[in-house]
Design brief:
GO terms for molecular function: acyltransferase activity, transferring groups other than amino-acyl groups. Residues 170-316 form the N-acetyltransferase domain. Pfam families: Acetyltransf_1. By secondary structure, this protein is an alpha+beta fold. Helices cover 32% and strands 28% of the residues. Strands 1-2-3-4-5-12-6-11-10-9-8-7 form a twelve-stranded mixed beta sheet, with helices on both faces. A hairpin with a 7-residue loop joins strand 9 and strand 10 (246-253). The longest helix is centred in the middle third of the chain and has 18 residues, at 98-115. The relative contact order is 0.15.
């Protein structure tokens, strides 16, 4: 059924809805993985990311009491030929919002493809393996399984705020966030390192606009240098007030400098800094289909999967 129950309605979200949306997402997280894994900043970012229009791309579903029981929104910050379909619903009581919201979002995806100038448009969606209702809705809408991601985490209890020395010839230091040339080198490492994955490339100017916002923890960003050249980069983001988790948003090492301990040195420097800043945990997400087998490094440094998520795809 793709119609809402009698008395239920939809409307567009506003930033004033962030607390209620976060309550919805936390309820979904707890049902799926046993604990909240989203912050208010995450909600704001999803509502304000480039190429997302609150008045055209996003919906809230409200039950007959006016409670927000569903949220649907896209995710394509680069404007490229791949989008993300995201639908949250209140476990149990909100399940009737799932298919109607997904149908609205997929109709909008076809419009977004044309507006962004793409004749073929890939749409992906994620689901925890135990989210059977969501998986059934996705497969019923034409999505097929693609791969898995792992959400990894480790405790920083007992981690020294002083990082181990990096391998000989490698220097790890904080990024100089006020130096545009350095930020361009940092960005270039990310883009070049992920050319052998399905990373969505973003021009420097767009990336710079995303990072130049209040609260970006540049003190937890690091570069690795060899012979004065930036060959590795670690980008952190704030885990939010709820968890204070140190979040590794991106770790990249140029291909010719891999298998030399550069990535591990960057991680250990970040973990030490997180610990020194009072963060209780470190976390990240990893594509288990990554051809560099990045997950092996994360296991090596002591991280374990908190949960795994299936990724599904279709085209419109």
């Amino acid at each position: 059924m793709t119609e809402l129950p009698h008395g239920w309605t939809t409307r567009r979200p506003t930033l004033d809805d962030v607390p209620a949306i976060l309550e919805l997402v936390h309820a979904s997280d707890v049902a799926a993985v046993g604990e909240p894994d989203y912050t208010a900043d995450d909600v704001r970012d999803d509502l304000t990311t480039p190429h997302t229009d609150l008045d055209r791309d996003c919906w809230l579903a409200l039950d007959d009491s006016g409670k927000i029981v569903g949220w649907a929104f896209p995710g394509n910050s680069t404007g490229g030929a791949r989008d993300m379909a995201n639908v949250y619903f209140w476990p149990g009581d909100g399940r009737s919002a799932l298919k109607p919201l997904l149908a609205l979002l997929m109709d909008r995806m076809r419009e977004r493809a044309a507006e962004l100038g793409h004749s073929t448009y890939e749409v992906r969606a994620g689901a925890i393996p135990g989210e059977t209702e969501l998986i059934e809705a996705l497969t019923g809408a034409g999505f097929v399984f693609l791969k898995q991601f792992a959400r990894m985490q480790m405790s920083l209890d007992g981690v020294s705020p002083v990082a181990p020395e990096p391998p000989a010839g490698v220097t790890v230091r904080p990024v100089r966030s006020g130096d545009e040339a350095e930020l361009r080198a940092f960005h270039a490492v990310i883009e070049e390192s992920f050319t052998d994955s399905d990373h969505r490339a973003m021009p420097f100017e767009g990336w710079q606009a995303k990072i130049n916002r209040p609260g970006t923890p540049f003190g937890e960003w690091f570069v690795a240098e060899v012979d004065g050249r930036v060959v590795g980069a670690l980008q952190s983001s704030d885990g939010g007030e709820d968890s204070r988790e140190g979040w590794v948003k991106g770790l990249a090492v140029l291909r010719t400098y891999r298998k030399r301990g550069v990535g591990e040195a960057l991680l250990r420097r970040a973990f030490a800094t997180y610990a020194g800043n009072g963060r209780p945990k470190a976390g990240l997400g990893v594509d288990l289909a990554n051809p560099t087998d990045a997950a092996s490094l994360y296991f090596k440094v002591g991280m374990t999967p908190l949960y795994r998520a299936n990724i599904y795809r279709t085209e419109v």
